[in-house]
Design goal:
about 500 residues, binds zinc ion, about 50% helix, elongated, single chain, two-stranded antiparallel sheet, 3 domains, mainly alpha
Amino acid sequence: MRKHANSLPPAPMLTNPVVRKAIHEVRRHIIAHLQKHKCKPDRIVVELAREAKMSAKDSDKALFRNRLRNRIKNDIIEEFKLGDLKQNQQRASVERVVLAVQQGSICPLCGNQRVKTAITPLMGAKGEDCELAHIIPRGIGGPNGLNNMVLAHTKCNRDMGRRTPRDLWGENFETEMNRVERMYADVERVDRKHVDKASEAKLWGCYFDKRDDDSKVANFKKELRDIQGFSERDLTDTRYATRQVLAYLSDALFDGKGLPERGGERLIFTTDGRWTGDLRREWGLFNDSHKSKSKGLSESEERARREKKRGDHRHHALDAIVIALTSRQMQLKWDQRLKTADARGITAEQYDEFCRQNRINPPAPFKSADELQEKALHAVYEQPGGNQERPVSHRAVKRKIVGALHEETLFGPIAKSNGLYKGSKSVLMLTPNHLRQARRETEKEAIERLARRRQLMAEVSEKDARKWATSTVKSKGYKPKIVDPPPDKSGLVRDRALRDRLRVPARGQS
Ligand SMILES: [Zn+2]
């Protein structure tokens, strides 16, 4: 990378190459910003991993759902006269009833084949010949939530013991899974709009929704290795990486300040990724410029279109706009709107409409969501000054840049050599020959470089710029620059900062 006035310190030497790489990429972005705008960013907003938490919209739904669930619970208590039971017995009873309805009175473990009795809501309420069963057994890390629970024949549950469905069914797993999936699909559920008027089993069936069915089916399919060593490590890794990136930004741009724990005005912010998608929808920032054409496409055409869209990375630019505008105030407004809706007794069915009528406006300088939408879509998708779409280059969707080699180290496949990969080698085994050695720039390279710069700095023709560059290079006092060879001729170590550090001791040894 060429040195320039606005250069930033290289990524610090961290033992974790993934984190170092992340910082390296952040650094490149900031350098691009410095070059283009000739100033430091005023404030930086970092988005944290998206999948970590529920989206804001989901937690709104959760609030309405809790209300509905309470209604269902009370209805069941009344229907089956469970009022006198102890609290935990009462809860278990209610859970058995809603599970019985969710599975259509069928025992998921045997499909009512081994034990022929149907498990009705009434039997569930009484706990007769049936009991709550974990799908992934508690003993091997299965959670206690209802999405990991079924209502099974007592006998079937005892036979299952501490096994996963996979272990239980062995070579019949596929067949049994088909049966389980059909079982959940067969149960009819009242549409959200008609919940208010539903009663008995129709009402109780709304305790769960399609997504609950799906995550339950997913639990049936889980393998032991999915369950154990489960992402606690990944989570701490992400947190660690984030902390390192924030510290780097603070050191590189704001003299070590800008973060709450380091004093001074706060300049570096983080936002939870769940807000990005929700605010994008709130402000109508969609990247689908072909929306109108998408109607009437066949399924495969639709898939091809989506495939193409995944390769179009411009929606990341829309994300970036939203991330920059996400602030604590926006989040407070969002929560405030929900509280208002709750206070006015708005139901889940009316809430979307309520949100449409009570839009959350983006912060200044935008006056409305419409204005933001127009400007953002224009900036990202249209040619400056024209109506044509901006030409876009994107990575082919199927070209993978992920894989063990990329995840674990900075080494990866060798460009232009199919099937060849770089491996890692102990630093102690390196010799100066392994490192790309800097060399003198050739005359030709120097002329090209200087001519390009001349053209950029002074508005002169290509020819004049070359002439000037040639005379500079050929003049007497000119000293050739020491440069790195181009990356495709690199040695073992491509990372420049690491290479610089290695060179010193490696030279010393030889
Ligand atoms: Zn059974």
